[in-house]
Amino acid sequence: PLGTPFAWVLVRLDGADTAILHALDAPGPDAVSTGMRVRVRWAAERTGAITDIACFEPCEGRERGSARPHDGVFADPVTGIVAEARLDYTYSPGRAQTAYINALSERRTVGERCPSCHKVYVPPRGACPTCGVATTDRVEVGPAGTVTTFCIVNIKARNLDIEVPYVYAHIALDGAGLALHGRIGGIPYDQVRMGLRVEPVWTDGGRYPDHYRPTGEPDADYDAYKELL
Ligand SMILES: [Zn+2]
Prior knowledge:
Elements: E1 6-11, E2 20-25, E3 38-42, E4 53-58, H1 95-104, E5 109-113, E6 120-121, E7 137-141, E8 145-153, E9 166-173, E10 180-184, E11 197-201, E12 211-214, H2 222-225
Antiparallel strand pairs: 1-2, 3-4, 5-6, 5-7, 8-9, 8-11, 9-10, 11-12
Bound molecules: zinc ion.
């Protein structure tokens, strides 16, 4: 930092509890000792950065002991600083959910089967909460499914551009061991029923089906979905 001999020193500024490493302008070892008083030598041009401290220099004897700890009151206090920051990250919701989301981008739905009870979880969480074992057997389900239960929504949701009333349903996709949620469209709301066979309707760029509509198949038997209500 200097063109002349200097020492690296730890300086504890008056009032501080910790020391900073900096350069001390000193002609030789005899000019440096622990406990000596030093002061900041400011840079010729100051920009408000740490580089404003050009180095430290020994204090004159007359200043020895004259410095008092700062009282913490400043005439022009710094209330904030602007610093550029950048944060790079890769979001991974886990092995099972990643596979689920990646499959959705191809308009497929995948779950995972428990090796113990053979239930197929959609969306998969990576483990069976009943058996407590990892689910690794990936299973593609749907795309069609069966309405197991439903409700008629009469209250318009904020920021949701869907005319009421509409039907929100539990839908058991074919092959899935539990139902997921979805909106039912393409049929008057008062004609939706348990057992109705439905299929997903995708919109351009959608990461999830926009809604489900009737397939036209005969309704499923109650026995076929009674465990999935
Ligand atoms: Zn299980």
